Amino acid sequence: MSSPKVTDVVVTPVAVMDPPLLNASGVHQPYQLRAVIELHTDAGITGLGEAYGDDPTLANLRAAAPFLLGLDVFDLNALTRRVEGALVDGIRTEGLTELIGVSSREKSVAQTVAAFEVACYDAQGKATGLRVCDLLGGAVREAVPYSAYLFYRWAAHPEGAVPTGYPVDDWGGALEPGGIVAQARRMVAAYGFRSLKLKGGVFPPEAEAEAIAALREAFPDHPLRLDPNANWSVATAVRVAPRLEGLLEYLEDPTPGNPGMAQVARATSLPLATNMSVTSFAEIPEAAALGSVSVVLSDHHYWGGLRASQRLAGICETFGWGMSMHSNTHLGISLAAMTHLAAATPSLGYACDTHSPWQREDVVQPGALVWSQGSLAVPAAPGLGVELDRGALARLHRQYLDCGVRRRDDHAAMLLADPSWTRQAPRF
Ligand code: GKR
Ligand code: MG
């Protein structure tokens, strides 16, 4: 078998409708941006990947694309070298997706490699008849558990934020414990999730602790998590965390940075998890030295891909850290990649995060990703096991062109509803 070589790289930005989910930065915009990557090869095989779709990410992907022509899809070290070479000058690091820690050149390279690496793996799988999880070392689980991702939210985006005819979803608002419990009941009934995560950092910590207590009462056997996205000061987190002991399986990013997280860690027996203070290999030594975290949420999109995520898994094992998986809004290509990675990573023991229940639009054909009891079965077809829905891709690209959103800005979206709103970090 000769290895497929890349003959063309197509990067297509898309916009998908998103509900008004509240978080520490503000509120989700009516559209979230993603980029769909197609690596065409001389074997007639096309590998699929998915990335953020903001302007800096697109600029980096497009800068790297010409350097991939002729690349052997099995030569992932060459992929890394080529991307690094392509992005030597003019790399975009500013304005990248929020809430995933500090921006850096290293992380922008990692994000760019990751997007193409997933597409290479998909092409490898299609060329060999193997699934991506098999290429990653073999599946240790054929069903990957995910957690329900609960959000405080409004019923609809504020007036003026959406075009005429923008359809409101039927989840309604959730601004107090009763609303969060109702949201959890619906999500558990629809998907069978067996663990629950509440996005916090929106209301004062005491109010969010009440929501956690209400969830515990309604779901006595479901592990619970709370993620204030570093919107609590160290003093607040030191005060509140001990009250959550016995209620949470972990507390995610209560406060910013490893030094602050370490102070909180010393004040509570709760495991602290992060996708904000440990977001690249460069941040690991500080976290290890300070003892700031005990669970790291991986995310192949910014750790550098599937292989880099498995390297991270090894490091987590070395330090005795647990491993979970972070999610931003994503589509089916990424969900398939996350599922293959989790299936092939033995120490990824916590249920993964996913925004899937909030997404009403996708670029993949339905049927490949099947939910059962809160888990996704690893797709059976070669590669990622998902196929592009070309009609949907064209429609969502049109939506991208028309919607005017070019980067994620939850703060600006909040200002439309409350012009006096200010971002304070941390707010509580
Ligand atoms: O979608 O609002 C959101 C989340 O807050 C997301 O942006 C975070 O990156 O889910 C993420 C997290 O766990 O921090
Ligand atoms: Mg988080």
Automatic annotation (TrEMBL):
It is an enzyme of class 4 (lyase). Transmembrane segments: none annotated. Its EC number is 4.2.1.40. It catalyses: D-glucarate = 5-dehydro-4-deoxy-D-glucarate + H2O. Pathway: Carbohydrate acid metabolism; D-glucarate degradation; 2,5-dioxopentanoate from D-glucarate: step 1/2. Residues 177-271 form the Mandelate racemase/muconate lactonizing enzyme C-terminal domain. This is glucarate dehydratase. It comes from Kitasatospora nipponensis.
